[in-house]
Amino acid sequence: MNMAHRQSGEVAGIRVFVNGPRGGNPVPMVRNADGMAASDMQDVARRHGHESAFVFESNEPGIDWKFRFFVPNHEMEMCGHATVGTLWALRAWGEWTTPSARIRTLSGVVDAWWDAPRGRVWISQPKVRLSAVDAHFGERVCQVLNPQLPVERHSLVENATTSRVKTLVRMPTIAALDALTPLLGQIEATCASIDSTGLYPYAVETGADGTPVVAARQFPRSSGYPEDAATGIAAAALWGYLGITDAIPVGTPAAPVVTSIRQGEAMGSPSAIELQARFGAHGEVVGCWLSGHVEWAAL
Predict the structure, then answer these.
(1) Per the residue annotation, which of 10, 51, 75, 227 is the catalytic one?
(2) pTM assigned to the model
(3) Which of 81, 113, 145 is a domain's end point?
(4) Which of 38, 190, 234, 273 could, after both became Cys, cross-link 166 (CB 3.0–4.6 A)?
């Protein structure tokens, strides 16, 4: 897909997973990054202070583009909200016209499809992998998230991975989740001790209609900012865990259930990440699709 007519290094601004005023996660996006060095891309992320996406032509058969992602402190293998937003922008510019696309990232190939009735992009994530967090480290995670948390909450700490390891910590209520006051200076060392890229406390409540209401917050290990407004990869890991433990319904291949994970409300950036199951040939869950509302934004 030819982007030669796009000026190299041109930056556009979008917000992804928007669910209200000032909501969503901002993405500075370079629509033609061919010729940019890693240091150039790092400079873009540092200048804007957000995860930034960079689009490259692909010479690989069956792959439409190559995406790279940088946060202010380092390069990332994969970024869910930046992938959704970048594909949405490419669609808006007329550079993506087919029903589906395949993207090469450092974490592997991401499949995508265009939801024309809703004007949204859905991208794939693999099936979640879970690993228990040792009780001692679980206690430490809870103490860092909020020193007032009872230490017995370590039993609800779990590492979950789709593209990157996230540490899931169940809170009793959404109000308790929103009230967390983590020791931000200890997040990086705590995450490093359990091989995690971020702490993802969450809560599940029952809505008025009887369906689950899921909310979460993300405190990244070392991205260069203290909290994320919306984190697609962490939401995918949480969705997988909740599905395995029957905390949410996943539906069937004929009638998949869409679950929305709210994030960013405690920091004044209301966001919502939609997820639904990807099913295999025999009806088994093989991963998930994730999506959300995208808007143009000033940087």
Answers:
(1) 51
(2) 0.94
(3) 113
(4) 234
